[in-house]
Structures are given as structure tokens and as C-alpha cells.
Write a structure and sequence with these properties.
The protein has 142 residues and is α+β, with helices and mostly antiparallel strands. The protein has one domain: Nuclear Transport Factor 2, Chain: A (Roll), CATH 3.10.450. Strands 1, 2, 3, 4, 5, 6 and 7 form a 7-stranded mixed beta sheet that branches. β4 and β5 form a beta hairpin. It is globular, with a radius of gyration of 16 Å. The chain starts with 5 loop residues before the first helix and ends in a 7-residue tail after the last helix.
């Protein structure tokens, strides 16, 4: 039987988004955004606090950051479930980049991303070690 629960549909959407990003397919990734869309990046991709408005700005950001960020593991956040109100599906999500783990919020409208909020929550262990090495603080290494 086909699983058509809201969580299953949301995770299937995240899987498709992850596949487009992993393939470096900007056209497919950008097409998953609504014409009027907003992506609020809080350090996870751009290493800055930046809001992209519309598909053109999303494409521009991805073309400059995707290869470095290497986003992956887009999932519904542990203990969370998707909700739907007024035709908008909302869900807390988790994801990883090459340098950080993130916990964000996605809102889907008409099967496309309307808003995506991606804050970095924690740097990876490797990223922390590289930062320490750049500062020359080897005594802090485990």
C-alpha cells in the first residue's frame, strides 16, 4: 500500500530535494521552489545571515555555495511531524552540510517550497579541529 501520510509526502519531497542538490542539478532544485519563495540561510550555506527572495536569488546562492556546502541527510527532525493548515505544509527538519548540522523549518505550498529556514546548529567535529589548527592551538586538540 502506498504511504500517503503527510509525513511520508514531506519526507519524499525532502528526498527529491536532496537528490537534486547532491546531483548539482540547479534547475531541478530551483524548480522545487515556488515563484514567490524565501530561503533564510543562517550560516549553514553562505557562512552569513542571508535571505534569498525568489528563484533567481536561490539559484545564485546555490551556484556559489552548493559545491562547498555539500548538503545532505534532509529529514523530518526527530520527534517532529509535518502539519498542514490553510494549504501550507509546515515541518521542522534536520540536515547536514560539510561543515555543520542544521535544524530548520520548511513550508510547502502547492507542492513547492514557499519558505525555507536553514540555521546551522553545530559545526562538525572536523570543522572545529580545522579551525583550531588554523589558530595554531594544538594543545586544544583531543
Amino acid at each position: 500500500m502506498l504511504d500517503t501520510t503527510l509525513d511520508a509526502r514531506t519526507q519524499a519531497f525532502l528526498d527529491k530535494f536532496e537528490a537534486a542538490l547532491a546531483a548539482g542539478d540547479l534547475d531541478a532544485a530551483v524548480a522545487m521552489f515556488a515563484p514567490e519563495c524565501y530561503w533564510r540561510d543562517l550560516v549553514a550555506f553562505t557562512w552569513n545571515i542571508k535571505t534569498m527572495e525568489g528563484r533567481d536569488q536561490v539559484r545564485e546562492m546555490l551556484s556559489s555555495c552548493l559545491a562547498r556546502a555539500k548538503p545532505r541527510n534532509w529529514k523530518i527532525a526527530e520527534g517532529e511531524s509535518a502539519t498542514e493548515t490553510g494549504g501550507v505544509t509546515e515541518c521542522w527538519i534536520s540536515f547536514e552540510t560539510e561543515a555543520a548540522r542544521g535544524y530548520g523549518l520548511i513550508r510547502l505550498q502547492n507542492g513547492q517550497i514557499w519558505t525555507l529556514r536553514c540555521p546551522a546548529r553545530r559545526q562538525s567535529r572536523r570543522q572545529n579541529l580545522e579551525r583550531i589548527a588554523r589558530r595554531g592551538n594544538r594543545a586544544a586538540w583531543p
